[in-house]
Specification:
Elements (H helix, E strand, L loop, with lengths): L1 H5 L13 E4 H10 L2 H21 L5 E14 L15 E19 L1 H68 L5 H36 L7 E4 L2 H4 L6 H9 L2 H17 L8 E6 L1
Parallel strand pairs: 1-4
Antiparallel strand pairs: 2-3, 3-5
Helix pairs in contact: 2-4, 3-4, 4-5, 4-8
């Protein structure tokens, strides 16, 4: 029994995972790496390039070649050769016949092909604009989530300090009440202030957890991984754009560029060619 009591009692506790430091620039880099929307937009750009090459192929020289060999029998009388010679057979053959042909065709003007080529080029520009839009949308979403998580993280220490202040105020009110230096109203006010600040701390912790989980889900990080958000000083020093530069920034916005390309594409589709010129040069050999 004495030996058992002399043994030290140790308690094994799970070590909490260390917090991963995540900066604003790193979060944007992860957002731009391989989002699903950007992958789909990239595939659409590749498809548009293939359609553009297919539309261009109609203006390349078309080379055709054919060859065949067969055995044939020729009736000379069907060709107008009639020899009145005794014992002459008008049927000649069978003999082997070989034929090889090579033709080169160049299209000079093809209105439908030109229209399809212009539409393919416009589709390429539209696909590239949508790819850029998907990339920037993913980046903007992660940026907003990071700012919300960073603000929630920075708000927690302030609320904890205010809660400690209200706790000291409540302790002082209880001491003064016991000494007869404070009224019941002052004690109740101190109690209410402490309860309100405690509720704000619970709400702030809940908001910080929710924003962290949203950002982790957007970046594909582990949900249970603790994250410490860091904002670079260079980003903090940047202010809002001036009014003179605001118009140019709005005009260059990716959604406005995509909308203009969609309008131009719809205009091109309404202008269907009514005629088709098939002027070709064909040189058999």
């Amino acid at each position: 029994m004495a030996f058992f009591l002399g043994l030290p009692f140790t308690r094994q506790s799970k070590a909490e995972p260390s917090a991963t430091q995540l900066s604003f620039s790193k979060a944007l880099s992860l957002a731009q790496s391989r989002p699903i929307s950007a992958i789909i937009a990239e595939k659409r750009v590749i498809q548009s390039l293939e359609r553009l090459n297919q539309a261009k192929s109609r203006f390349y020289p078309q080379l055709q070649a054919s060859s065949y060999q067969f055995r044939r029998v020729v009736n000379l009388q069907s060709s107008g050769i009639d020899l009145a010679t005794p014992g002459f057979d008008p049927l000649v053959g069978p003999f082997n016949s070989f034929d090889a042909r090579l033709s080169l065709t160049q299209s000079l003007f093809n209105a439908p092909a030109l229209s399809r080529l212009k539409e393919a080029r416009l589709n390429k520009q539209l696909s590239q604009a949508k790819q850029e839009q998907a990339r920037l949308d993913a980046t903007a979403l992660v940026a907003n989530l990071f700012i919300e998580a960073y603000r929630a993280q920075e708000r927690l220490p302030l609320i904890q300090v205010l809660l400690k202040q209200e706790s000291n105020r409540l302790r002082l009110a209880k001491t003064q009440k016991s000494l007869g230096l404070a009224s019941d109203l002052e004690l109740t006010q101190a109690q209410v202030g402490w309860e309100n600040m405690r509720s704000q701390l619970i709400a702030a912790k809940s908001a910080a957890l929710e924003s962290r989980l949203d950002l982790a889900a957007a970046l594909g990080l582990a949900q249970k991984q603790a994250i410490r958000f860091v904002m670079e000083k260079s980003i903090k020093s940047k202010g809002l754009p001036k009014q003179t530069n605001l118009d140019s920034l709005v005009a260059k916005h990716h959604k406005i560029e995509s909308a203009l390309l969609v309008v131009e594409q719809s205009k091109k589709k309404k202008k269907n060619p009514t005629g088709r010129v098939l002027s070709k040069i064909k040189r058999p050999s």
